[in-house]
Amino acid sequence: MLELKEIYFTVPDKEAENGPAEKTILNNISFTFEKGKFYGITGPNGCGKTSLAKTIMGINKATHGKIIYNGKEITEMSITDRAREGIAYGFQHSARFKGVTFRDLLAIAAGTDDEGKLMDILARVGFCSLDFLDKPVDSTLSGGEIKKIELATTIARHPGLAIYDEPDTGIDLWTIEPMVKLIKRQITDYETTTIVVSHNKAFLEAADCLVLIKEGQIAYTGDLEGAKPLLSDLSVCRYTDLCEGEIDAQCYR
Ligand SMILES: Nc1ncnc2c1ncn2[C@@H]1O[C@H](COP(=O)(O)OP(=O)(O)OP(=O)(O)O)[C@@H](O)[C@H]1O
């Protein structure tokens, strides 16, 4: 179980002239994520979703508030110590490593070089070929392949809490459903508390609970049905007052 108590995240406001010298990115977030449940964090661009995910992982340090994981306060813990406690994080933009193969990355994540076990993890993310193990994790991989690799290294550790930031970035439409299934299977098999930051309908439909963020605050928690009116409200453009017309702005709305 993960408890967030009155979490704030503020940064220096570089644009401030006479205004406040700080920008509040997360504004008094309190929420409890139950063990083994699937949570979808969503909301408009720039509302603070990634900031919240990073604050849970310790990449951002909360300016105020407490984070309690399985009864232990982790607010001041480093990223590494949080990882040791069983928290894993999949980045929105995955890293590539020159000179490192998929086998190396998986072996580090899984803590074993047993080929059978590594192949089992590979199969879970939809790579069936043994050849794939010795592919370098470098710029020759496609965006979708690198995303799958990141997913594989996250599940290899069977974390107690898995946080995925926009896991569908670069993934084709046909791979999203299997990805959702895989995440759900991890939850069933290992009771992994799962947080997915996403705008994607497939993840939002699969989640047990949605957490809707608006301007750094929780605007809604609950099921998708209840979120729908708010989601359509939030999709309304915030810049209509300034807008000079759709063609000018290349607006897709
Ligand atoms: N370290 C930081 N310093 C200054 N501003 C920041 C910092 N981190 C985040 N922000 C700002 O906070 C706001 C929220 O960012 P965040 O990445 O959390 O949004 P998001 O909801 O994940 O957006 P998206 O859907 O576009 O990925 C943005 O305006 C961003 O520029």
Automatic annotation (TrEMBL):
Tell me which residues make up the ABC transporter domain: 2-240
GO molecular function list: ATP binding; ATP hydrolysis activity
Q: Does the keyword S-adenosyl-L-methionine apply?
A: no
Q: Which UniProt keywords apply?
A: ATP-binding, Nucleotide-binding, Transport
Q: Which PROSITE patterns match?
A: ABC_TRANSPORTER_1, ABC_TRANSPORTER_2
* Record-stated family: Belongs to the ABC transporter superfamily.
Q: What is this protein called?
A: ATP-binding cassette domain-containing protein
